[in-house]
Design brief:
Elements: E1 12-21, E2 25-33, E3 39-47, E4 50-57, E5 60-68, E6 73-77, E7 80-82, H1 91-103, E8 105-107, E9 111-117, E10 126-132, E11 135-137, E12 151-155, H2 157-165, H3 172-193
Parallel strand pairs: 4-10
Antiparallel strand pairs: 1-2, 2-3, 4-5, 4-7, 5-6, 5-12, 8-11, 9-10
Helix pairs in contact: 2-3
Length: 194
């Protein structure tokens, strides 16, 4: 790990103006003091974070498709959702909840792929991404969220990679999960031939 004096880069908040406070995130505008003693502003989005799970069932990844208004298009993603108030301490449980709500599956074991900040230049949203290939179909799954309209599909690795090329899969968490899945398959092949 690199060690250096990161405090010399700190931007101190001089004032904060609340711009918007919504159900999912809130937006502020900060006036900050820069390391060279000049001032500037930062527009920031504060978000509880998200969780996602890459479920693989019988050699195929389970994806859910939905219309994403911010993109004005329909895309496929791994099951995911925002962390509800209080779930920040247990994003794994939230991932399992989202998996059941969106696909009707339960996962027996999870591996954390990564936790990442998608756009740290302006957003505090941290997304936790998990992987599981040990799934069981639930007879009576939890209901999906109100206003959520999903299409579920199962794809092979080759199909998933082709969907990335055509931007049917276009979000970072899903692309990351597919790369992880591919690395796991390559690792298994190497171990079989060793």
């Amino acid at each position: 790990m690199l060690t250096f004096d990161d405090k010399k880069f700190e931007e101190k908040t001089l004032s904060r103006e609340e711009i918007f406070h919504g159900k999912i995130f809130h937006v502020v505008r900060d006036i900050v003091s820069l390391p060279d003693d000049q001032t500037s502003f930062r527009e920031l989005v504060f978000h509880n974070g998200g969780t996602a799970i890459a479920p693989v069932h019988e050699g195929k990844m389970v994806l859910v498709g939905q219309y994403r208004k911010a993109l004005e298009k329909f895309i496929f993603e791994i099951p995911a959702g925002k962390l509800e108030e209080g779930e920040e301490k247990d994003p794994q449980a939230a991932a399992l909840r989202e998996l059941e709500e969106e696909t009707g599956y339960l996962a027996a074991d999870l591996v954390e792929i990564s936790a990442f900040y998608g756009t740290p230049g302006f957003s505090s949203e941290k997304t936790y991404v998990y992987f599981s290939s040990n799934l069981t179909k639930v007879e009576h799954p939890r209901a999906a969220d109100d206003g959520e309209f999903l299409e579920q599909i199962e794809v092979t690795l080759a199909e998933a990679k082709a969907m990335i090329e055509t931007e049917q899969i276009a979000d970072a968490k899903t692309i990351m999960a597919i790369w992880y899945w591919e690395m796991q398959q390559l690792k298994s092949e190497v171990e079989r031939h060793a």
